[in-house]
Amino acid sequence: MIIKSKLKLLLKPGKATPTPPIAPILGQYGINLMNFCTKFNEMSKNINLELIHVKVILFNNLNYEIILGNESLNSYIKKTLNIEKFSNKPKIENINYINFKKINEISLYRNIFEKKKIFSVRKMIVGTLISIGINYE
């Protein structure tokens, strides 16, 4: 089968509905939204995470394949640092500090899924921390 396109989504496991943000993205490719939602909800019903990455591979004959990914980096940082809400004004109002040991721990977890160089993963994590208002030392 020939791949027509690859889509990346960030969804709540087991709670997909044929409304935005799913409907506009998948609707333009002609995917049946109800079938997608029931299939995704069935696949992810046992996952107890806030948000997960989902890849949808769409083929030329309008068949598709759903690949469930890992937890989003922001959700993992919230869980690891016990933060309820990130800063509304990053670089102006910073929530708290994180040390390099914790950044390294997060990067080792993340590198299991990313398969990149550890330095690149650390850079990505530091950039995410800055954008959500967490300083590092």
Describe this structure in words.
- GO terms for molecular function: large ribosomal subunit rRNA binding; structural constituent of ribosome.
- Residues 75-135 form the Large ribosomal subunit protein uL11 C-terminal domain.
- This protein is α+β, with helices and mostly antiparallel strands.
- It has two domains: 3-70, 2-Layer Sandwich (Ribosomal protein L11, N-terminal domain); 72-136, Ribosomal protein L11/L12, C-terminal domain (Arc Repressor Mutant, subunit A, Orthogonal Bundle).
- Helix content is 40%, strand content 21%.
- It has helices at residues 22-27, 33-43, 73-81, 100-114, 118-131; strands at residues 3-11, 52-59, 64-71, 97-98, 135-136.
- The strands form two sheets. It has a three-stranded antiparallel β-sheet with strand order 1-2-3. Strands 4-5 form a two-stranded parallel ribbon.
- β2 and β3 form a beta hairpin.
- The longest helix has 15 residues, at 100-114.
- The mean pLDDT is 87.
